[in-house]
Write a structure and sequence with these properties.
By secondary structure, this protein is an alpha+beta fold. The chain has two domains: 148 residues; 157 residues, no CATH class. The C terminus is likely disordered.
Length: 339
């Protein structure tokens, strides 16, 4: 399918609605790509409206068009949020269709996402609620509460780069709570040995900088190669702050980004456990906390992709919305019963 036109349909949630028009069209200034927005469900009593976004671009295949459309739509939404200061989110990708002119039978994908069969997780117990009671007490200082908040935001974040940054913020706050008071050396960026001043004939020392305090946290909660873990996470954080994509970071680190998120997430969780325990002990409280540890912090969603072929009314001029709308249904069984 060389040099084909591909249409990818998305569903968006938006705080903004149209002002006196039925359709808005964006033409990319640098690429042969357009985005058409239509209102799908607007109820002024609801907080969010639902919009349809149709990305049309040139691509080599349905797979290529599906992948590239995500980046084009993402950049469009970032700029639109800057222009409006209103929340707008991609809810889901719905369809990928061969949109090439003159095609009689059009190949298409229908995409449906669903959660795994093991959800919801049966983990809530009275012990956990009593742990939350302890965390709500005055024995937990405000800085630790802020770290808990950032950890919470990371757990719920939709995008992996946001998860990473929120986990890093939690660790950075905790590092200031427990950083050593004794002075430390600056280290050589290459060999990590203490820097030396020939004029003073000594290794200068100072109170730990924020980065050194974070390094201390990693050493406190990681038993196996904490220095390597810190350098990797610090490097990823710097790359994100300098605008590198997840794909570029994966290539540079040799790690999949979900693995990177899980690594820093477990550091943040263990750091919170450690700091909370130290805080409670200093307050004279000897309590047992029940804190679960997940095997992954990343969002895991199953996807069903149905391959279909349909014929449009005018092969030379296909129009948005004329495709069939078959229903995709997922039957789940939990404990022997369907839900």
């Amino acid at each position: 399918m060389p040099n084909s036109r591909i249409l990818v349909e998305y569903e968006l949630t938006s705080l903004g609605v149209f002002d006196g028009t039925d359709e808005l069209k964006f033409s990319h200034p640098n690429l042969p790509a357009t985005i058409t927005l239509r209102e799908k469900k607007v109820d002024l009593e609801d907080e969010y409206a639902t919009l349809s976004a149709y990305v049309i671009l040139e691509a080599d295949s349905l797979e290529d068009g599906s992948s590239r459309s995500e980046e084009i739509l993402s950049e469009f939404i970032h700029s639109l949020k800057l222009a409006t200061s209103l929340d707008l989110q991609v809810a889901r990708k719905l369809k990928v269709i061969d949109w090439t002119e003159g095609v009689e039978e059009r190949t298409s994908w229908l995409i449906h996402k669903f959660v795994g069969d093991d959800r919801p997780y049966k983990v809530l117990t009275q012990d956990i609620v009593e742990t939350v009671q302890v965390l709500a007490s005055d024995d937990i200082p405000p800085a630790v509460r802020r770290a808990i908040r950032w950890f919470s935001l990371a757990v719920s974040a939709k995008y992996m780069d946001e998860q990473f940054q929120c986990f890093w913020f939690a660790i950075e706050i905790l590092a200031q709570v427990v950083k050593p008071t004794e002075k430390v050396n600056d280290a050589c960026a290459k060999c990590r040995e203490p820097l030396y001043c020939a004029h003073c004939d000594e290794h200068p020392k100072h109170r730990p900088y924020p980065k050194q305090a974070i390094h201390f946290i990693f050493g406190k909660v990681i038993a196996d190669k904490p220095d390597e873990a810190f350098e990797m996470c610090s490097d990823v954080r710097n790359r994100l702050m300098h605008g590198e994509s997840l794909e570029e970071i994966e290539l540079a680190t040799g790690l999949d980004f979900p693995e990177i998120v899980d690594r820093i997430g477990h550091v943040a969780l263990r750091a919170l456990r450690s700091v909370i325990r130290i805080t409670l002990e200093s307050a004279g409280k000897n309590v047992r906390l029940h804190l679960l540890e997940t095997n992954t912090f990343c969002q895991i969603v199953g996807t069903v992709q149905a391959n279909m072929v349909y014929t449009c009314n005018n092969p030379e001029n296909p129009t948005i919305g004329e495709w069939p709308e078959p229903e995709i249904k997922i039957d789940r069984k939990v404990g022997g019963s369907e839900i």
